[in-house]
Every structure is written in C-alpha cells, then in structure tokens.
Design a protein that fits this description.
By secondary structure, the protein is of the alpha/beta class. The chain has four domains: 6-131, Rossmann fold (3-Layer(aba) Sandwich); 134-263, 2-Layer Sandwich (Transcription Regulator spoIIAA), CATH 3.30.750.210; 267-384, Transcription Regulator spoIIAA (2-Layer Sandwich); 388-442. It has 13 helices and 19 strands. The chain has helices at residues 15-30, 54-70, 81-85, 87-91, 108-116, 168-172, 180-191, 222-229, 250-258, 275-281, 287-300, 319-331, 359-384, and strands at residues 6-11, 34-36, 44-49, 75-80, 98-100, 127-129, 150-154, 156-157, 176-177, 197-201, 237-240, 265-267, 305-312, 336-341, 388-393, 401-406, 411-415, 424-432, 438-442. A hairpin with a 5-residue loop joins strand 18 and strand 19.
Length: 449
C-alpha cells in the first residue's frame, strides 16, 4: 500500500454519483493517497458508473481504455449502479481489476489493500464483490467539495417507486435517508470551506425522512428538511435538484419563494405529457397534477426557472401520444427540457410491454423535443433581459470568459477575471449573445460575499 501514491476518479451520471465519488476520494486521502486528474498517471483509477441509459453503459469501456493508455499497469476499479446491476459484465472488460456493488463501494480502500497484498492473484478477470440489493438497507452520507464552485449534498438514497422503465431501485435499493442532524452537520462543514452553493441530491429526495432497515415511517419530512437547512449559517444558496411532482408540495413551493437561501429553480420530472403513457410507466401522478405544480411555482415565483425530464419512445407511445406530449410541453411555462430516448433495460417491466417504438422514430422524437428545449430556454432568457439578478461565478477560464449562474439558473458570461471566481455579484441582464449565453452589467462592484 505504501508504494501506491496516486488515485484518479471518473464519474458518470448524476449529481448523487458526484457526491459519492467525493466521499470515496476522501477515504483514499485518509489512506495516504494523492488525488490526481483522470488524465494523469495514477496507480489506481476508480470509475463511478451509471446505468440510466445505454450510452452510459457503453462509455465505461471507453473510459477504461483511457486509463490504460495513460498507465497500462494501473489498477482499475468499477463502482456504482452499473457495477451493482452487471458486475460480471464489467469484470470481464479488459483492464478491470475490481468491481464493487452497492454496499461495498464505500469500503473500496479495504478491498484495494487486500488486492495489493496478494500479488499472486491473476489480473486476467476482475474480482467481484457485490450484494443482493435487499442488503442495501443502510445509509452512507456523502457530499462533494473541491470539484466545483457548488457542493452536492446527498440527503437520501434508493427508491420505493416501481416505474416500469427504471433500474435504479435494482441498483440502489429501498428508499432511506440521512438523519436531519447529520445533513445539517454536513451542510455546516461545506459552509466552512467557503462554498457558496449547495445542491440537495438523492434518488428521490421528496421522499426524504424514511429511516434505515426498511423503516417506512418518516422521522422528518422533506419540508422540515428545507426549513432546517434554510437556517444554516454561511450558505448563500440552496438549490433543490430533481423532485417528483407528487412530492413537491405547495408548502415547500411557498417556503422557497420567501426563504433566505433557497433559489427559484426547480427540476420536476414529467416523463410523458399523456396520461395513458404515464399509467404504463406507473408514475404516481397524472398531467393535471403536473400543471398544478407548475402553475403554483409561477404564481409565487414568476421568475423561477423550471426544468423538465421527459422520455420519448416509451413502448406504446403512438404518434398521437407524442404530439400530445409535445403540445403539452409547448404550452407549459417551463424553461428547459432534459430529453431521454427510451432504451430497453434488463429486468424492468417495460421490456415486456407491447408497442415497441422503432429506434429511428425514437431518435426523431428526441430531436423534436431537444429543439423545443432550445426554444424554451431562449424564451425564458429573453423574458429575464432587463432584470437584476445575483450571479455566482464558476472557476474555469473558457476561451477567455468566466461563466456563472444566476439564482434562477440563467447562464451568464463576462471576460475572464480570476478575482471573480466563487464570488457573488449583483448584475443586470442586458443581452443574449450568439452562443445563447447572457451578457450583463454589474449593478455594483462590491462582492456580496
């Protein structure tokens, strides 16, 4: 172990994965490793996998090859959702030495120690350490720091929903949550590292409060979590990541509209704008409730940014179903779309449904909705021109510009100035540039924090 000094990480997928990668990285630091960029020479490469789409699965092999190209002798470790769902498939990928499932990934340094202490082991096929997903009934808290201007704070894991297209319950287990006291402790630790923004993350964060070991009673509700976090000193911004429409209650929306720290930005999955398809997906709402949630947000926060997840090409989705979804989204006062092309996933109910949509039709529908998303974002930005907002600047120099996001998630840019990194400023939005980003004037040159 003493001869191994460098470790690198690559994260596929969601904000939750990023928070867990950061926690795993801290465990390596505690063992004496130096973290380096994934493009650099390292002794250990850890890949945190995702299995939401086929594309994420296929990218894994490409990333393994990247690591091997830099250091053919390095140990390569796979953790995460794909590692839980298809561990032996990953173990057979050339170059992979270790595959850890849902309950094992946070003990990766112990497995690495054991592997390195037995050099006689063959490195032809990766070792697999995975569990039955029913064993993933305990909670490990995580948060990301040091990777970017904002931190991702995990508050919940797993899901009890049975959406017919989704493998996440198979990869992460039952819904369970961190204690409120530990969430607040982690938030305080983040604030002490001069991080201005926290994004709450999990698999189904609106279900926050369920305890460990299958305890389905809520010790605290998501609304109580939001109320408590709003009082954490030192955090300028709190942002709610994706939350199910049936779990986004009016009390939470109203609280956010008047809170000290929570910003007017919501990401609310829809998946389909047709009730027949929503029923086939076994979603827990119909489109009428979705309209109510969007209307409530815009009633109390007219300037709020609202993102939408939508799946195209689900089995049984006819041309008429799709056009109704398109028209439904076109009429909604939302700001952008995350469009997912349906892909068949093993061990899901949707695989057996009738009415399979040809892949070329799925691609066509996806392109149409992505075009609508561009139009929606442009309209939202145009509506905000002339308004005063607060921007938090990022840390990268991109082609001579520094970028940032307003509280309502408008991406802005100005010529690079290192003194602006991780600072908040009052600005007035002035015009949309050719690249779709917004230019602005400083209302005041005083750094707010």
């Amino acid at each position: 172990m003493n001869s191994i000094k460098k470790v690198a990480f690559y994260t596929l997928g969601c904000k939750l994965n990023f928070s867990e990668t950061s926690t795993i990285a801290r465990s390596f630091k505690n063992e004496g490793f130096n973290r380096v960029d994934f493009s650099e020479n390292a002794d250990i490469y850890v890949i945190n996998t995702c299995s939401v789409t086929d594309n994420a699965d296929k990218r894994f092999k490409t990333i393994v090859r990247q690591a091997q190209k830099v250091n053919p002798e390095a140990f390569i470790v796979a953790v995460g959702c794909y590692a839980q769902l298809k561990p032996h498939e990953l173990a057979n990928v050339n170059g992979v030495d270790l595959v850890l499932g849902a309950t094992e990934k946070f003990n990766v340094t112990s497995y690495i120690n054991d592997l390195l202490s037995h050099p006689e082991r063959s490195r032809g096929v990766g070792e697999v350490h995975s569990c039955d997903i029913d064993e993933a009934d305990f909670y490990v808290g995580s948060y990301s720091v040091g990777d970017r201007t904002r931190a991702f704070l995990k508050v919940q894991d797993g899901c009890d929903y049975k959406c017919t297209y989704c493998t996440i319950p198979l990869a992460r287990g039952i819904s369970r949550s961190d204690t409120l006291s530990n969430v607040l402790k982690n938030a305080k630790e983040i604030s002490e590292q001069n991080i201005k923004e926290i994004v709450l993350t999990g698999v189904n964060i609106g279900d926050y409060g369920k305890g460990e070991f299958g305890n389905k009673t809520h010790e605290h509700t998501f609304f109580e979590l939001v109320q408590a976090l709003d009082n954490v000193e030192g955090i300028e911004r709190l942002r709610i990541s994706s939350i199910e429409p049936n779990l986004l209650k009016n009390e939470t929306i109203e609280f956010v509209s008047q809170s000290k720290s929570f910003v007017p930005h919501f990401h609310v999955p829809l998946q389909s704008g047709h009730n027949d398809i929503l029923r086939l997906m076994k979603r827990r709402y119909l489109r009428e409730l979705y309209v109510e949630r969007i209307s409530k947000i815009k009633e109390v926060m007219p300037h709020a940014c609202i993102g939408v997840d939508v799946i195209v090409g689900f089995p049984g989705e006819t041309d008429d179903h799709f056009l109704e979804t398109y028209n439904f989204l076109n009429a909604l006062d939302v700001s952008y779309l995350h469009v997912f092309t349906y892909s068949e996933r093993d061990n899901t109910e949707a695989v057996g449904l009738k009415g399979v949509v040809p892949k070329n039709i799925r691609t066509k529908r996806s392109k149409m909705l992505r075009g609508l998303s561009v139009k929606k974002r442009r309209a939202f930005y145009e509506n905000q021109i002339g308004s005063e907002r607060t921007v938090l600047f990022e840390s990268e120099n991109k082609d001579g510009y520094i970028h940032g996001f307003t509280e309502n998630y408008i991406k802005v840019k100005t010529p690079w100035n290192p003194n602006l990194v991780n600072t908040l400023h009052n600005i007035k939005l002035t015009e949309i540039d050719d690249d779709g980003l917004v230019r602005f004037d400083f209302v005041e040159e005083i750094v707010l924090s």
